[in-house]
């Protein structure tokens, strides 16, 4: 045994000397890139020797084939105990005790010591030409999954996970805010930008299109460039274009900014859940991923509260002439970017997922992060003396090795080749989700995601539209109608609202400094009338005749005159753009925000229940059970004939259905391996947004026509989703693939 250890020491010293010489000679010719190869070679040579000696000289108290240092208890009791991998002093490299030297890898190829320098040359050739088969990669992944779960158990659940919980919660909160922003600003933006009905519909749906693209794009990239980096990029895009959208004036520019803002925030959900799950042990995963879902609810509450506080205050605005106007709804858009900005700032203090590093062959980086998790939790629990006992972690060799393009290649060509390579890798990853191993799971999840999204988003938009329809019916029932009235030499300087005037005759009348709201004049004659400082909303003149009349500083544009005749009439200094005024809709605005606030708050009980029961009853029971109860609750909508009744049913449906969403998020994370997790989640989330667009479009078309069809559509989709959910594999109690 003594000779064996002497051989070990001699080999390590020889390998390091050769590596130094290779570095010194190669750096003169090809630069720094060879330095990394020689470092890797030295580490791998050390690993091969250690693996060969494991059977003859096993580590004391080793677990899982030598992944843990022996007698960790004694190390814990020693004052100033430290990791075996970070102690010692090398005279040449000046590595001191406590400095990280790199951890030997347990999955490196085995080599022989007998060949001396010749065997080292063979090892270098092996390092360049190594090719791991798919079967070997699969075996490595399974071993990594088991060991990673054991390491997470040792690290414990504590301060680090809770810190990451709040940081990722801000990112999820930003997604919740984004869903509500356009809906809240639309009533104001349509007046401020003079939007037509088609433009209003496009503005309402554009965010979903952006999020659909973003979910797929950032989800796929997160499996290639890392969870943290992808999340930082997508949140930055969301913040920048949310900021710009609050200042731009034109409709097209605003639409473009909201589209790119949606593209940015679309990646938050697939990345956040995958990122957080890779720091959670199996007994904590379902519960804490469900707690994380609460931040989506908090985002909705934040958006409702900010809209309630800011938008109705018309005084919170300024303008520079008639060309630039900054109204209160723009302040609200700006404030809604704060969660995303806060998430970016906090995320800079968080590390990358160690599982991502280990799946891509970056052993040392993954080990350091897991040690950070362990040490942070142990210090918070009052056990700073406990040492991270893991010395070596299984890693998976990446399928795609980086190719050195060369320094003489043009910059644009290098970037083009990198983008092409990345695109091929993303396409390969997506197709892998439809491989025989995952095809059934993917198609089943596609059906569940589609049916749930179609019914949930369709109904949640249909509810407010039905409430507005009920309000409109009540408003129309109070409409006053005047026929064949003759009005001469009268001055109108008060608000005219909710009236219909038919076959009237107005001679030498003055309409001064007044507001017209929901006014309709049909088959009437205006002769020598004077209109000045008129502000109108939903006001039209149909088949009317104007003779020698003057319009001065009004917003009575051409589209308000339907089949009208104007003889010797003049328009002077018409108002530019549309006039935004909350004085008439003040109570209505508060009611809209209050309804959304209640609907969002109603999901709190469902979030709590799902978090507490997710790991007890299982993901599939939670998913199918909640979907069935939501399906039954849809039929109560038939009895919602009043405003208060519809609000109560909205809260009931939201509170029940949130549990199924939480379970679906958890089961999606757990059904795919780490190297495909965010790609699959992003693809399914993109499908979810497509189903949302279809659901919203279809359900809105039935407002005011029938209740039966939307209810049957929603109930049928939920029933189908709950049935298919029972066919998915249960993931409770399993290690993260």
UniProtKB/TrEMBL annotation:
Bilayer disposition of the protein: Multi-pass membrane protein
Highest taxon in the source lineage: Eukaryota
Region described as Disordered: spans on this chain: 1-92
Gene3D superfamilies, A to Z: E3 ubiquitin-protein ligase SopA, MFS general substrate transporter like domains
A GO CC term attached to the entry: synaptic vesicle membrane
Composition skew (Basic and acidic residues), residue ranges: 14-24, 32-49, 79-88
Keywords: Cell projection, Cytoplasmic vesicle, Glycoprotein, Membrane, Neurotransmitter transport, Phosphoprotein, Synapse, Transmembrane, Transmembrane helix, Transport
Biological process per Gene Ontology, one example term: chemical synaptic transmission
Alphabetized SUPFAM superfamilies for the sequence: MFS general substrate transporter (SSF103473), Pentapeptide repeat-like (SSF141571)
Any one GO molecular-function label of the UniProt entry: transmembrane transporter activity
Subcellular location: Cytoplasmic vesicle, Secretory vesicle, Synaptic vesicle membrane; Presynapse
Ranges that cross the membrane: 162-185, 205-222, 229-247, 253-277, 289-311, 331-350, 443-463, 590-613, 620-640, 646-668, 680-702, 708-726
Major facilitator superfamily (MFS) profile domain location: 164-732
Main location: membrane
Annotated function: Plays a role in the control of regulated secretion in neural and endocrine cells, enhancing selectively low-frequency neurotransmission. Positively regulates vesicle fusion by maintaining the readily releasable pool of secretory vesicles.
NCBIfam families in the cross-refs: synapt_SV2 (TIGR01299)
Subunit structure of this chain's protein: Interacts with SYT1/synaptotagmin-1 in a calcium-dependent manner. Binds the adapter protein complex AP-2.
Family classification: Belongs to the major facilitator superfamily.
The name this protein goes by in its record: Synaptic vesicle glycoprotein 2A
């Amino acid at each position: 045994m003594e000779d064996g250890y002497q051989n070990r020491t001699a080999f390590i010293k020889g390998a390091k000397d050769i590596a130094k010489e290779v570095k010194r000679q190669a750096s003169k010719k090809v630069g720094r890139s060879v330095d990394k190869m020689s470092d890797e070679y030295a580490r791998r040579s050390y690993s091969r020797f250690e693996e060969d000696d494991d059977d003859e000289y096993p580590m004391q108290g080793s677990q899982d084939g030598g992944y843990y240092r022996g007698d960790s208890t004694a190390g814990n009791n020693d004052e100033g105990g430290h990791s075996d991998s970070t102690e010692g002093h090398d005279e040449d490299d000046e590595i001191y005790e406590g400095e990280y030297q790199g951890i030997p890898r347990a999955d490196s190829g085995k080599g022989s010591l007998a060949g001396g320098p010749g065997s080292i040359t063979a090892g270098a050739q092996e390092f360049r030409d190594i090719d791991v088969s798919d079967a070997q990669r699969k075996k490595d992944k399974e071993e990594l999954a088991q060991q990673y779960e054991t390491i997470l158990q040792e690290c414990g659940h504590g301060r680090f996970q809770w810190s990451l919980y709040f940081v990722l919660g801000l990112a999820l909160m930003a997604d919740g805010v984004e869903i509500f922003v356009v809906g809240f600003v639309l009533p104001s933006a349509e007046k401020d930008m003079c939007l037509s009905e088609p433009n209003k519909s496009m503005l309402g749906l554009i965010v979903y299109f952006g999020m659909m693209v973003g979910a797929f794009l950032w989800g796929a990239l997160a499996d290639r460039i890392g969870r943290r980096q992808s999340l930082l990029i997508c949140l930055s895009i969301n913040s920048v274009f949310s900021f710009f959208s609050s200042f731009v004036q034109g409709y097209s520019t605003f639409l473009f900014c909201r589209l790119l803002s949606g593209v940015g925030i679309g990646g938050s959900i697939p990345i956040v859940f995958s990122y957080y799950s890779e720091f959670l042990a199996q007994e904590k995963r379902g519960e804490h991923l469900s707690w994380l879902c609460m931040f989506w609810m908090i985002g909705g509450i934040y958006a409702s509260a900010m809209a309630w506080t800011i938008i109705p205050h018309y005084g919170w605005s300024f303008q520079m002439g008639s060309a630039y106007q900054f109204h209160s709804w723009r302040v609200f858009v700006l404030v809604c970017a704060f969660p995303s900005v806060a998430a970016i700032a906090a995320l800079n203090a968080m590390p990358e997922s160690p599982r991502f590093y280990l799946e891509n062959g970056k052993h040392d980086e993954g080990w350091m992060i897991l040690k950070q998790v362990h040490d942070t939790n142990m210090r918070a629990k009052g056990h700073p003396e406990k040492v991270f006992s893991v010395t070596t972690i299984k890693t998976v060799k990446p399928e795609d090795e980086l190719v050195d393009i060369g320094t003489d290649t043009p910059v644009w060509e290098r970037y083009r080749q990198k983008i092409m390579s990345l695109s091929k890798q993303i396409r390969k990853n997506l197709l892998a989700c439809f491989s025989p191993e995952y095809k059934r799971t993917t198609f089943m999840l596609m059906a569940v995601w589609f049916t749930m999204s179609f019914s949930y988003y369709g109904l949640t938009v249909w509810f407010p539209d039905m409430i507005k329809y009920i309000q409109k019916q009540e408003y129309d029932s109070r409409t006053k109608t005047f026929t064949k009235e003759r009005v001469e030499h009268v001055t109108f300087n008060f608000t005219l609202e909710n009236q219909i005037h038919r076959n009237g005759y107005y001679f030498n009348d003055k309409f001064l400094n007044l507001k017209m709201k929901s006014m309709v004049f049909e088959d009437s004659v205006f002769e020598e009338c004077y209109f000045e400082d008129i502000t109108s909303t939903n006001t039209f003149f149909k088949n009317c005749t104007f003779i020698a009349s003057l319009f001065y500083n009004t917003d009575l544009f051409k589209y308000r005159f339907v089949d009208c005749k104007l003889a010797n009439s003049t328009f002077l200094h018409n108002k530019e753009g549309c006039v935004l005024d909350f004085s008439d809709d003040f109570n209505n605005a508060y009611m809209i925000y209050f309804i959304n606030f209640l609907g969002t708050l109603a999901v709190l009980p469902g979030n709590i229940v799902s978090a507490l029961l997710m790991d007890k009853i299982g993901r599939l029971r939670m998913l199918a059970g909640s979907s069935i109860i939501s399906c039954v609750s849809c039929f109560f909508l038939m009895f919602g004939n009043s405003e208060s009744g519809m609000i109560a049913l909205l809260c009931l449906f939201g509170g029940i259905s949130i549990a199924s969403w939480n379970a679906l998020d958890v089961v999606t994370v757990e059904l795919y391996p780490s190297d495909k997790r965010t790609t699959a989640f992003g693809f399914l989330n993109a499908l979810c947004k497509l189903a949302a667009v279809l659901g919203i479009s279809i359900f809105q078309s039935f407002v005011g026509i029938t209740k039966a069809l939307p209810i049957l559509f929603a109930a049928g989709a939920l029933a189908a989703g709950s049935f298919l959910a029972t066919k998915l594999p249960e993931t409770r109690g399993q290690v993260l693939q």
